[in-house]
Specification:
179 residues; alpha+beta; Outer Surface Protein A, domain 3; 2 domains; 3 helices; 13 strands
Length: 179
């Protein structure tokens, strides 16, 4: 039994919810997102509260109940506040810059890494070593940040690479010659 799925979602006044069959559209000041509700689940709007229900207690419906509720809740937060992931680049000569809808990152390779910024995502570089990935879809923001981080994950010897702000990288001792 899903405790998360049972919780009603508060809908702010500036958010418009449109439910048509198994499709739900969430529209707010920052944008518009759509989600298709899995089979066996239903969504109803009562007195500015959104309730996700299920038709039976089958294992599949139980597992999707909380997920669907969380996704819709994240959509509401996304269209009102938005989501941001902060990345930092560590390493001598490592830097990033945005040129139109292309993110160009110099990571010590023989060539600069060019990343096409997807639609709905904004990337800003306050400093050449700091990136901020912003958007209204939490899943998309996280995926883009992870894809950028995958170009050069932080290594444990010198700590060089791309990491999330506040991420701890455990350092290893290098080889030492014992006489």
């Amino acid at each position: 039994m899903s405790r998360i799925g049972k919780k009603p979602i508060d809908v702010p006044n500036n958010v418009k919810i449109d439910i048509k069959g198994s499709n739900i559209t969430v529209e707010g000041p920052k944008g518009k997102l759509e989600y298709t509700i899995p089979g066996g689940l239903s969504v109803s709007l009562k007195e500015n509260k959104l309730i996700v229900g299920r038709s039976s207690s089958l294992k599949k419906e139980l597992s999707l109940h909380g997920l669907a509720r969380s996704i819709i809740s994240n959509f509401i937060k996304g269209v009102t506040q938005g989501y941001t992931k902060e990345l930092e680049i560590k390493g001598v000569g490592f830097k990033a810059e945005v040129q139109g809808n292309i993110l160009q990152i110099n990571l010590g390779f023989s060539h600069a890494v060019r990343y096409a910024i997807p639609e709905g995502i904004t990337i800003k570089t306050a400093k050449p070593t700091e990136l901020s990935v912003t958007g209204i879809d939490k899943i998309k923001v996280g995926e883009v940040a992870a894809e950028i981080r995958d170009y050069f994950k932080p290594e444990p010897y010198k700590g060089k690479g791309i990491r999330y702000v506040g991420e701890y990288v455990k350092h290893k001792a290098g080889k030492t010659v014992v006489k």
